[in-house]
Amino acid sequence: MNDRLFPDKDHLHIYLWNNEFTNYYNEGRYWDGAYVWSVYDEKRKRFTVFDARLVMI
User: Fold this and answer.
1) Are 51 and 29 in contact (CB under 8 A)?
2) How far apart are CA 55 and CA 25, in angstroms?
3) What does the domain layout of the chain look like in residue ranges?
4) How far is CA 42 from the centre of its chain?
5) 4-39: b or e for each residue (b if 16 or more CB lie within 10 Å)?
6) What pLDDT score was predicted for residue 49?
7) Residue 22 pLDDT
8) Using CA atoms, how far apart are residues 34 and 53, in angstroms rounded to an integer?
């Protein structure tokens, strides 16, 4: 999937963001983690955001 979304990895800018801007990620921060990444593909001019909350149920 990574190769399909981002085939030319030499032109990517990837950032891990601080997730404390909202309480949406509170449970994830308490349990196993909460993450927000952005990926900018300068060749394709595409900006993509991923997020994940890891919570034990």
Assistant:
1) no
2) 10
3) 2-54
4) 17
5) eebeeeeeeeeeeeebeeeeebeebbeeeebebeeb
6) 96
7) 93
8) 4
* pLDDT tens over the chain, length 57 residues: 788 889 889 999 999 999 999 999 999 888 889 999 999 999 999 999 999 998 877
Checking phi first, is residue 12 left (phi over 0); if not, alpha (psi -120 to 50) or beta? beta
Structure tokens at 54: 């890891």
Which tokens belong to 30? 């308490």
> What backbone phi and psi angles, to 5 degrees, belong to 51?
-140, 155
pTM, 2 dp: 0.75
Q: Alpha-carbon distance 36 to 23, whole Å?
A: 13
Six token digits for residue 56 = 């034990």
